[in-house]
Amino acid sequence: MDYDVKKGHYSDIEGDGLRKIAESAFGKAEMKADTVTASYGAIESLEAKVLSKSSVSINTKMRTDVTSEVANETIKRYNTFLEGATGFTSKERRTRLQKKAKEGKL
Q1: Strands 29-32 vs 2-4: parallel, antiparallel or unpaired
Q2: What's the predicted TM-score (pTM) here?
């Protein structure tokens, strides 16, 4: 899924910035070419890539065979990662996605 990046936030994710954000959220993250890869808890694999100054692509493959505690912790860490990667809180991301859906841009 592609997410908008907050204006002025690109400097935080360019170069090795996105990997550092993933590492702080998930404990371990690696760079493979220009893509950040990580896994944690219910996230079997996560691939994140900066597309432009205003867009980042994040793809996840999830496990369904985890306890509710692991699922809850994974959601918290994933939201922390998304906020660091985009500069937007979960509420702001939801509002932006709803607006795009209404406009037919999804």
Answers
A1: unpaired
A2: 0.91
Paired with 46 in beta bridges are 38, 60
- The encoded tokens of residue 28 equal 């371990």
pLDDT digits (tens, 9 = 90+) for 22-38: 999 999 999 999 999 99
Give residue 27's domain range.
2-103
Residue 62 sits in a domain of what CATH number?
3.30.310.190
How large is the C-alpha radius of gyration of the chain?
Answer: 14
Tens-digit pLDDT profile for residues 58-83: 999 999 999 999 999 999 999 999 99
> Token pair of 46, please?
């996560």
Q: What DSSP string runs through 4-38?
A: E--TT-HHHHTTTHHHHHHHHHHS-EEEETTEEEE
Strand partners, 61: 45
